[in-house]
Write a structure and sequence with these properties.
By secondary structure, the chain is mainly β. It is built from 4 helices and 33 strands.
C-alpha cells in the first residue's frame, strides 16, 4: 500500500473507529451488567450497608447511601422506595455499581424521624424480588421515634397489599379520605401476611389495608380493594400496639356466593340439562347434615309441583326423611334434611313429575360417610368489650364455600359444632353490632368502622372420631 493510500485510509475510517470504541466503552459503563457464568442466582437482593447507619440521630446530611450485595433493577428501586414523612420534593438518585445515593433536593425538616421503606416490588437484575419489605429510620432530632403498630392481614393472597397509617394529630378525622390524602406512613405485608410500622410518632391513627392492584402506592377506587378496622388506634397508654388485624372478604364464604356465576358454574346437570345439582350423582362421603342446591335453569317448573313431589328416601333403612325447602331465587332451591341423616346410608333424592304436565322424573343418589369419619369442634367466646349484640360463629371447610356451619350466642359462652366430616376448617366470628345478620366491613370515606371480628389464625385439622376442644374466640 502506498503511503498516500495508507494516509487516505486512516483519514476515511479513523472517525468511525473512534466512535465505535467510545460507544462500547459508554455502554459497558452505563449498563454495568453483572458477570455471567455460574449457577442461576435465585436469592433476593440484600442490603450490605447503609450510610449513615440506621437509627442515626441529629442527621444533618443531604443524602442516604445504600449498598446492595448485587446489581439491582434501578427502576424497581425508584418505584418501591417510600419515605415517611414525604419530603417536600422528590429526591434524586445517583447510581454507582451496586450502590445508590438518595439525594434530597431540599433540607429535611428538623426534629423529625424519617422512615424508609423498600417494598417487595424491588428486584435485582435477574428478577429476584424481596421476600419482605426493608425498613430503617434516621432522625434529624435528638431521638428516634419508637412507637409501633403491628398485625396481620387475612386474605387469600398477600400480593401487593400495603398498609396506610394516618396520624390524627392536628387533623379533622372526618376529612381523611385515602382517595385524596397521602398517608403519613406506609408499609407492606410480608409473605405470611404480617406487617409492622416501626419508628413512628406516638399519636392516634386511622389505618387501612389496601390491595394495590396498580402498584402505584395510592388508593384507586373501583380497582383496589380496601379493608377498614373496627376502630381507630389510640396510643394513650402505650407506644407498642399489636394484633391490629385486617380482614378481606375473599377469605370468608360470601353469604351471597350461591347467587354468583362462579357457584352456578360448579353445578352438575342431569342427562338432559333440566336440573343442576350442587352434588354429583352417586357421590360418596356426604355429611349427615348436608346442604343441597338445585337449579332449574329453564325456569319452567312449578314451585308447587316441586314442593309436592320432592322426596328424600333412605334406601338403607327403608324410610323417608322430611326436607326443609328454601327458594333462594326463582330458579334456585336450597334444601336440607329436617333431622340428621344416618351414617353409612344410601339416599335417593327424587322429584317425580310424571303425573304433571312436565311428565318428568329426576333422581339423585348419594351415600353418607361412616360415623368414624366425623368429629366435633368446641370452645369459648371471650368478649372483653362487653358488647351486648349477637355474636356469630361460622365454620367452613376450605374450598367448599357452600358447607357453612353457623352458631349464634348472646354473650360470653361456649359453643360446639358436632357431626363435622373430617377435613380442614376455618373459623370466623364477628359481633353483629347493627343487628342485620351479616358481617359489615365498614367504609373508608365517609368513615365507618367494620364490625369486630375474629379469625382463628391456623386451620383446624379435624380427623374422624376426634374432638378439637378449647378453641378460644377473643374479642
Amino acid at each position: 500500500m502506498k503511503n498516500s493510500d495508507r494516509y487516505y485510509y486512516y483519514i476515511k475510517y479513523f472517525p468511525a473507529v473512534i466512535f465505535f470504541y467510545f460507544s462500547v466503552l459508554f455502554l459497558s459503563c452505563a449498563n454495568q451488567l453483572p458477570p455471567t457464568g455460574g449457577d442461576d442466582d435465585k436469592t433476593p437482593p440484600r442490603v450490605r450497608k447503609i450510610i449513615p447507619k440506621p437509627n442515626t440521630v441529629r442527621f444533618d446530611g443531604n443524602s442516604i447511601t445504600i449498598l446492595f450485595d448485587k446489581y439491582v433493577d434501578r427502576r424497581s428501586f425508584r418505584e418501591s422506595l417510600f419515605i415517611s414523612p414525604k419530603p417536600a420534593k422528590e429526591p434524586d438518585f445517583n447510581w454507582g455499581g451496586k450502590e445508590v445515593e438518595i439525594k434530597f433536593t431540599e433540607p429535611l425538616k428538623k426534629n423529625k424521624t424519617y422512615t424508609f421503606l423498600i417494598s417487595k416490588g424491588f428486584k435485582d437484575f435477574l428478577g429476584n424480588f424481596l421476600n419482605e419489605p426493608i425498613q430503617f429510620a434516621v432522625s434529624t432530632g435528638d431521638s428516634i421515634d419508637n412507637a409501633s403498630i403491628s398485625g396481620k392481614v387475612f386474605s387469600n393472597s398477600y400480593n401487593n397489599i400495603i398498609i396506610f397509617a394516618y396520624s390524627l394529630k392536628d387533623k379533622n378525622d372526618t376529612l381523611i379520605n385515602p382517595l385524596r390524602i397521602s398517608p403519613d406512613y406506609i408499609t407492606q405485608v410480608n409473605e405470611n401476611g404480617s406487617y409492622f410500622f416501626n419508628h413512628i410518632t406516638k399519636s392516634n391513627y386511622r389505618v387501612f389495608a389496601l390491595k394495590d392492584v396498580n402498584k402505584n402506592m395510592v388508593y384507586d377506587k373501583g380497582i383496589d380493594e380496601i379493608s377498614v378496622l373496627p376502630s381507630d388506634i389510640f396510643m394513650d397508654t402505650t407506644e407498642d400496639i399489636k394484633k391490629v388485624n385486617f380482614l378481606f372478604n375473599d377469605i370468608i364464604p360470601n353469604e351471597k356466593y350461591v347467587y354468583s356465576s362462579q357457584f352456578i358454574n360448579t353445578l352438575v346437570p342431569d342427562t338432559i340439562a333440566n336440573i343442576y345439582s350442587s352434588i354429583k350423582n352417586n357421590e360418596k362421603e356426604m355429611p349427615v347434615e348436608p346442604r343441597i342446591f338445585l337449579l332449574f335453569r329453564k325456569n319452567n317448573f312449578s314451585k308447587y309441583d316441586i314442593a309436592d313431589n320432592i322426596k328424600l328416601f333412605d334406601s338403607t333403612n327403608n324410610k323417608f326423611t322430611r326436607l326443609v325447602l328454601n327458594w333462594t331465587a326463582d330458579t334456585l332451591l336450597e334444601l336440607f334434611p329436617a333431622e340428621k341423616l344416618k351414617y353409612t346410608s344410601e339416599y335417593i333424592l327424587s322429584i317425580d313429575l310424571r303425573n304433571t304436565k312436565k311428565n318428568y322424573y329426576y333422581k339423585l343418589n348419594f351415600m353418607t360417610a361412616d360415623e368414624k369419619r366425623f368429629g366435633k369442634i368446641s370452645g369459648n367466646v371471650i368478649n372483653k368489650f362487653l358488647i351486648p349484640n349477637t355474636i356469630y360463629i361460622k365454620l367452613f371447610q376450605k374450598n367448599k364455600n357452600v358447607y357453612i356451619y353457623s352458631h349464634t350466642i348472646e354473650s360470653d359462652s361456649g359453643f360446639i359444632f358436632q357431626n363435622l366430616l373430617e377435613g380442614d376448617y376455618q373459623l370466623f366470628s364477628y359481633i353483629d353490632e347493627n343487628n342485620n345478620g351479616i358481617y359489615d366491613s365498614g367504609n373508608p370515606y365517609p368513615y365507618s368502622p367494620s364490625e369486630r371480628f375474629y379469625i382463628f389464625e391456623s386451620s383446624l385439622h379435624l380427623k374422624g372420631n376426634w374432638s378439637i376442644d378449647n378453641v378460644f374466640i377473643r374479642f
